[in-house]
Write a structure and sequence with these properties.
single chain; about 160 residues; alpha+beta; two-stranded antiparallel ribbon; 8 strands; binds iron/sulfur cluster
Length: about 160
């Protein structure tokens, strides 16, 4: 009998993940951090700005969508909300409680979960020391994050 990758994916037994706050997933090559309108409002509120002030000051247009801005540093293109100064050796998110789904669901993105090989490639390429370490994340939780990311990526651009 053939395996059913939807009902019985390769990560059926769960995956280990525990963030070390290294910041590697928030930097690197130029990229985009997408967010929904609702997430934009939440981030604006977190930094005590109006929606328009937030969009003007902290985001940029990439094609027809808005992304959070990046700042070029010695580490790479850091998310503009990455804080490397407050805690020595750690990279923290200044808007952690309001961070968008793209950040909340890392590394359980559909692309990374498409195969064990894709997962290993993402772990090496980021590189993310949290993938494959620490607490076991159950398949039910992985599915929720995977599907949330897919949903938000398909949502209307702002
Ligand atoms: S790369 Fe992995 S361990 Fe480092 S901050 Fe991102 S999720 Fe955490």
């Amino acid at each position: 009998m053939m395996d059913d990758p939807v009902r019985d994916p390769w990560y059926q037994g769960g995956l280990q993940f525990s963030c070390t706050q290294c910041g590697n997933c928030c930097t690197g090559a130029p990229g985009a951090v997408w967010f929904t309108e609702e997430e934009g409002r939440a981030m604006a509120a977190q930094v005590s700005l109006s929606e328009q002030e937030f969009l003007d000051g902290h985001t940029r247009l990439v094609g027809s969508r808005r992304s959070l801005k990046e700042i070029e540093t010695s580490h790479g293109f850091d998310c503009a909300f990455l804080d490397r100064d407050s805690v020595p050796g750690k990279a923290l998110c200044r808007i952690y409680r309001a961070r968008p789904s793209q950040c909340r669901t890392w590394p359980f993105w559909p692309t990374n979960l498409s195969s064990r090989r894709a997962w290993e490639q993402a772990r090496a390429a980021t590189p993310c020391p949290g993938m494959g370490a620490g607490a076991l994340v159950r398949v039910e939780e992985i599915r929720i994050m995977r599907d949330q990311d897919q949903l938000d990526n398909g949502s209307a651009p702002w």
